[in-house]
DNA sequence: TAACGACCCCGTCATAGCGT
DNA sequence: ACGCTATGACGGGGTCGTTA
């Protein structure tokens, strides 16, 4: 007889979900949610762009951290002499946006994991409470039965 | 031991919602 | 209206355990 209670649990790190309910895809959060074996691995798996100076010209995060000197030749060099500045600006803007979103995604996942862990803890606590209450009820019933007899 | 599935983490894109 | 942030969705790469 579980009533649909709001899932506002007493978690310090409750996730503020603005975009609707958390619908956890089975691929990502199936299983025990143990912290990965690989630990922190910032290998930037999607690489290869960095060497393709002729393509979209995405800059790496490290390139952005170091100002203009680390810009790819095609971008920085051209912008110095030709009216390519808007292009370079757009690229830099895009890279900044990507970098921010990357970090936002990381933070979002961290919060979600914490939230799920919190919920799991809460479930464990409630299950224990439930067990205790059932046991208590049984005891009281016993006492009552003996009194009636 | 290669193949495979399950799981995890990541980066990116799309978009809802909020503040200015 | 516009920019920004948070988050769902998607696809890719890595690791690990299992199985033929």
UniProtKB/TrEMBL annotation:
The coiled-coil segments of this chain are 109-143
Q: Mainly resides where?
A: nucleus
Q: What keywords does the record list, in alphabetical order?
A: Coiled coil, DNA-binding, Nucleus, Transcription, Transcription regulation
Q: Which PROSITE patterns match?
A: BZIP, BZIP_BASIC
Q: Where is the composition biased (Polar residues)?
A: 61-72
Q: Does the keyword Iron apply?
A: no
Molecular function GO terms recorded: DNA-binding transcription factor activity, RNA polymerase II-specific; RNA polymerase II cis-regulatory region sequence-specific DNA binding
Q: Which residues form the BZIP domain?
A: 91-142
Q: Where is this protein found? A: Nucleus
A single GO CC term for this protein reads: transcription regulator complex
Repeat found in the keyword field: no
Q: Which InterPro entries match?
A: bZIP, bZIP_sf, Leuzip_CREB
Annotated segments matching region Disordered? 48-83
Q: Which domain of life is it from?
A: Eukaryota
User: What is the official name of this protein in its record?
Assistant: cAMP responsive element modulator
């Amino acid at each position: 007889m579980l009533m649909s209670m709001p899932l506002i649990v007493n978690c310090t790190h409750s996730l503020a979900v603005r975009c609707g309910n958390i619908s956890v895809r089975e691929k990502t959060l199936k299983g025990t949610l143990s912290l990965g074996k690989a630990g922190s691995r910032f290998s930037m798996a999607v690489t290869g762009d960095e060497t393709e100076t002729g393509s979209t010209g995405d800059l790496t995060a490290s390139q952005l951290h170091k100002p203009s000197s680390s810009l790819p030749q095609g971008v920085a060099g051209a912008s110095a002499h030709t009216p390519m500045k808007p292009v370079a600006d757009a690229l830099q803007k895009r890279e900044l946006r990507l970098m921010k979103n990357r970090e936002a995604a990381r933070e979002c996942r961290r919060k979600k994991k914490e939230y799920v862990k919190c919920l799991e803890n809460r479930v464990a606590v409630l299950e224990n409470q439930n067990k205790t209450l059932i046991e208590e009820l049984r005891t009281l019933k016993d006492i009552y039965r003996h009194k009636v007899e």
